[in-house]
Amino acid sequence: MEKEVLLSLKGVTYAYGERLILEEVSFEVERGWVFQIISDAGGGKSTLLNLCLGMLKPLEGEVKLFGLSLNNISYQRLKDLRRRIGFVFQESTPINNITVFENVALPLRYHTRLSEEKVRSKVSSELERFGILKYSDERPVKLSVNDKVKLDLARALVTEPELIFFDSPFLKMGFEDYGRVLSILRELKRKGVTLIIVSNDKMLTLSLSDRVGVMKGGKMLGVKTSQEIKESKDAYVGQLLSGEVSFAPEE
User: Fold this and answer.
1) Would you say 106 and 155 are in contact if contact means Cβ atoms under 8 Å apart?
2) What CATH number should be reported for the domain whose range is 1-84+162-175+189-251?
3) How many angstroms separate the CA atoms of 178 and 216, rounded?
4) How many other β-carbons are positioned within 10 Å of the β-carbon of residue 140?
5) Which tens digit of pLDDT belongs to each residue from 112-162?
6) Of the candidates 79, 76, 80, 7, which has an alpha carbon nearest to the alpha carbon of residue 48?
7) Helical H runs in 158-194?
C-alpha cells in the first residue's frame, strides 16, 4: 500500500532577528506514525511545531500539511486544515473565564454541528478519561498544573483529530498521570491517529514511537526507527534520553 505523508518539511530554516533557530530541517511523517522529536534545550523544538501548524512561516524551505504547502496558504484554507488536527502547547492555554467543561466543548461548538446532547456526551467522556470530570463546573484557574495539562489534552482530543501535535506533554506530570496519558497515546496509535510528540521521554521511545527525529542546536541530525535508537551507541542520544542534556522550555 502506498504511504501517505501527512507532514513534510524540506530545507526549513527560521530565525528570530539575527538569531538562527532552525537550519535546513527536513523530515516526513506518514499517516499512523508516532513521530517523536528529541532535542537539547534551545534546539528549536517549539518553533518547529509552530511552523508545522502554520503559525510561523519559514525563511527558507517548505512545510506541507496534508499535501498542501503552508508557505503561502490562505487563512481560510489553513483554518480548514486545522479542523483535522489537535495540538497541545508547552504552556497550558485554558480560557479562565469559562468552565472546564466549556473549555473542552469549545472546539466542538466551533468546528462541528453536533447537537447539544452529543457535545455534552463527548465532553463528559473526555473529562472522565483524563480523570477531571469532577472539575467540570470549575474555572481552570482553580486547577493544579497537572490538571490544566490534562484539560489541554482533553480539549485537543475531543474532536477526534487525524493528527495531533504535543509539545512536552509529560514535562510536569506525576507518575500516575503520566501512566494515564501514555495509555491514552497507545489507544490513539491503535486507532491509527498520527502523533507528533516533542519529548525526551525514554519510555515513549521504547514503547510507542515509530520514528524518532534527533535535533541539536536547531538542526535535524537524523530520523531513526525506535529500534535504531534503542541500539544506538551515540553519546548525545543517550544523554538526551537519560536526562543528562537539559530539556527545558524555550523561545
Assistant:
1) yes
2) 3.40.50.300
3) 26
4) 21
5) 899 999 999 999 999 999 999 999 999 999 999 889 989 999 999 999 999
6) 7
7) 175-190
Q: What ranges do the domains of the chain cover?
A: 1-84+162-175+189-251, 98-161
What is the rounded distance in angstroms from the CA atom of residue 35 to the CA atom of residue 145?
26
pTM: 0.91
DSSP string, 57-122: --SEEEEEETTEESTT--HHHHHHHHTTEEEE-SS----TTS-HHHHHHHHHHHH----HHHHHHH
For strand 60-65 and strand 5-16, is the pairing parallel, antiparallel, or unpaired? antiparallel
Please give the Cα distance from 34 to 185 (Å, whole number): 9
Q: How far apart are CA 178 and CA 170, in angstroms?
A: 6
Kind plus residue range of the DSSP H or E element containing 198: strand 194-198
Q: What is the pLDDT of residues 81-96, one digit of tens each?
A: 998 999 998 777 889 9
Task: Return the closest-CA partner of residue 36 out of 185, 162, 149.
Answer: 185
Cα(214)–Cα(212) distance, rounded to whole angstroms? Answer: 6
Cα(33)–Cα(55) distance, rounded to whole angstroms?
Answer: 23
Give the CA dihedral 187, 2, 210, 8, nearest 10 degrees. Answer: -110
